[in-house]
Task: structure prediction
Amino acid sequence: MNEILNKLHEAAASPRAQMDGYLAQGKKIVLCAPVYTPEEIIHSMGFVPMGAWGGDVALNRAKEYCPAFLCAIVQSMLELGINGAYDGASAIVIPSLCDTLKTVGENWKYAVPSIPFIPMTYPQNRKPAYGVAYTKAGYERVIRDLEKLGGTFSEEKLRSSIKVYNRHNAAMRKVDEVLAKHPEITAAQRSDIFKSAFFMTKEEHTALVEALIEKLEAQTPAAEKLPIVISGILTDAPALNAILDEMDMHIVADDVAAQSRQYRTDAPERADALNALAEKFANMDNCSVLYNQDKPRVKWIVDTAKARGAKGVLVVLTKFCDPEEFDYVMIKKACEAADLPLTLVEVDRQMVRFEQVRTNLETFRDLLKM
Result:
């Protein structure tokens, strides 16, 4: 099992090495910005989709294009692009799922002209028939742009890619369930399992995750620690996960955009594959960047925490992320009504000192032990 975990860690920690490996094989890379991009289309057209969720870097050149109050995930993505960290990529697909993402594409065109920008414009009202049609039109725009880069599209190839991605979704949902029963898997290792998925082909990642599930199911779980549910856009900061492990906290479920939210919804496997993929987006929910005035995400967090036996909820708020900030008030009220302890920590891509986070989590740990 350690061998599998090490491979996942290497991929999560060294995305550039992964990228160079695929380029050396003659494959073309298409970067996928947060939060949801039509990877199935990119995969079906012969490209390797690779996540571009920024990184823990100082912001210098990106400040020439972005005001200070923009989300650090997107700013660091732009900084990495300017610095050449993504050199060799054939294009980047940036979705329109928040105000910051809606603007960064135009900045990208001038700041990183060597990597073409492909917009993916999603509708706010995605569930009605007109919303599905709008999503499909956005996908058709992505297809046309990828064809200019040498990709070829067919419904048959997209059906095959949907099957690959649905299998990967199932594996990730399963590993999430299995990890809830195995406190010996650390927060850092859990992060690697999910983060590595952005930097490997889905075929390769599925094989590793399925092998890991088999190993875990044959292993006797360790004694339970402090079970929690974690929520946010991104929770991959090594210092944050180190503190969670130091506090003996066991993540039994997540509501994280870069983790389980990616895998909750499958595309229907049928002949009209592009329509099916548009319907997949319509069926997605329980996420701060997916409009739903009823906010079922709030109930999902509370219900999942109870179902998994969590003693509390940790919200990891990315600074200046408006959609997550708006939802937090409702999450807090719902957890209080359910008598479920909750705490919030703020993070961004430039944090180097986590003392305030540590103090907050120490207090939270003591509260959960009462």
Summary: The mean pLDDT is 96.
